[in-house]
Amino acid sequence: MALPKRRLSHARQGNRRAHVALSAPAVMECPQCNSPKLSHQACSVCGTYNDRTVVDVDAIAKKKADKSKGQQ
């Protein structure tokens, strides 16, 4: 297995790690309900994407409520 011949300086180590930083998520405003949402994803509040309703949010909320009611 290969081993380094010399110790790496702090400058070289920092140069290597220059691209390791995390980037902030791309958050935008939903055009329908004006709530924050991730870009290129359906809105979790109203269920729209690209001016179309793609997720039935009411059915998901009802299903979740029925499931929690059954566990009690």
From TrEMBL:
<protein>
    <recommendedName>
        <fullName>Large ribosomal subunit protein bL32</fullName>
    </recommendedName>
</protein>
<dbReference type="GO" id="GO:0006412">
    <property type="term" value="P:translation"/>
</dbReference>
<keyword id="KW-0687">Ribonucleoprotein</keyword>
<dbReference type="GO" id="GO:0003735">
    <property type="term" value="F:structural constituent of ribosome"/>
</dbReference>
<dbReference type="GO" id="GO:0015934">
    <property type="term" value="C:large ribosomal subunit"/>
</dbReference>
<dbReference type="InterPro" id="IPR002677">
    <property type="entry name" value="Ribosomal_bL32"/>
</dbReference>
<comment type="similarity">
    <text>Belongs to the bacterial ribosomal protein bL32 family.</text>
</comment>
<dbReference type="InterPro" id="IPR044957">
    <property type="entry name" value="Ribosomal_bL32_bact"/>
</dbReference>
<dbReference type="Pfam" id="PF01783">
    <property type="entry name" value="Ribosomal_L32p"/>
</dbReference>
<keyword id="KW-0689">Ribosomal protein</keyword>
<dbReference type="InterPro" id="IPR011332">
    <property type="entry name" value="Ribosomal_zn-bd"/>
</dbReference>
